[in-house]
Amino acid sequence: MLLHTWYFVKTISVIVPDNVEDEIVGSITFSENFTTRYGPIHPPFYQGTLEDALKEACSKPAKDRKILAIYLHHDASVLTNVFCTQLLGFESVMQTFENNFVLWGWDITFESNRQKLQQSVNSCLGSTAAMSLKNIPVDRLPALVLIMRIRSSTEIFNVIYGNVGVNELLSSLIECAEVFSEHQRVEIREEAERAEREMVKLEQDLAYRESLEADRAKEEAKRNQERAEHEARRRQESEKAETEARKEAYRKEVEASLPPEPPQCQGDGITKIKFRLPKGEFIERRFEANTPLKVLLDFLVVKGYPAEEFKVISSWPRRDLTALDKNQTLKDLHLCPQETVILEER
């Protein structure tokens, strides 16, 4: 049998040469030489590695998935020519492949290429799948290995051997497509429900994050306002303290320069001024009659009633003493021998 196989492959142009190193190159060579030998009337073959073909078919969302069909070719099988020209070229078979399958072909005529396939299947689908393909006898080739992904499991669903008629092949492909479609509808619905749940969760998470952000923004605005108010109070208090310090320094300066109050027994040259304060209290002080008005106003500064903040109103005639010439004497202003003046806030 080995001698017959060697003789057969030597007398025709092989589809894939012996010892193909690159699986992508091998798949492209397979597709091109298959078309050259059997003509263009056949389902298109995926060009790439087996792993890439598996991803193209099975590693997509459920609505985009297809079944992976691995076509195993062997030039020494008497079934090959009929299978390739008549079965794969049948219109309904091609239509079924186009609608439901990703077709990947590999030539296992040479043992080296069979071994390479075994390694790829073992890597992509596991040792059980690799062992099941290894044991296919040559006289049952070609073969179509149908692989589908159901939920999280990717497994061989069926193997269609070369000794079938077109009706049996078509029935097997349609049965596989119907089983896959039934599971696919369930997974599409589950994925949609899962996507909807995830969307609701995303919206809830977004709303929660926005709420947290709004709360943080409010807290930050509150802290900023509190800092601004604190800074304003601190500035006002500082300004007030500075103002008070300046006023106190000025008051002490005025107090130091204020002439002493004359004694009561001094005689006619004395006038007694009574001051009615804004809250109704009274204070009084004696001044010499020839004292300038400025001294009277300085006395009020010492008592905490500066002219910048208070008017000093004489009773008759009614006038604001702070608006008069401060160099005039109390006698000139007819504030002798006694007078009551009223302090009013400006």
From TrEMBL:
Any one GO molecular-function label of the UniProt entry: ubiquitin binding
UniProt cross-references to InterPro entries, sorted A to Z: FAF1-like_UBX, FAF1_2-like_UAS, Thioredoxin-like_sf, UAS, Ubiquitin-like_domsf, UBX_dom, UBX_domain-protein
Domain of life assignment: Eukaryota
Signal peptide: none
Span of domain UBX: 266-343
The protein, known as: UBX domain-containing protein
Taxonomic classification: Eukaryota, Metazoa, Ecdysozoa, Arthropoda, Hexapoda
Region entry Disordered, spans: 213-269
A Pfam family it matches: FAF1
A GO term from the CC aspect: endoplasmic reticulum
One BP annotation, GO: ERAD pathway
Basic and acidic residues biased stretches: 213-255
Taxonomic source organism: Acanthoscelides obtectus
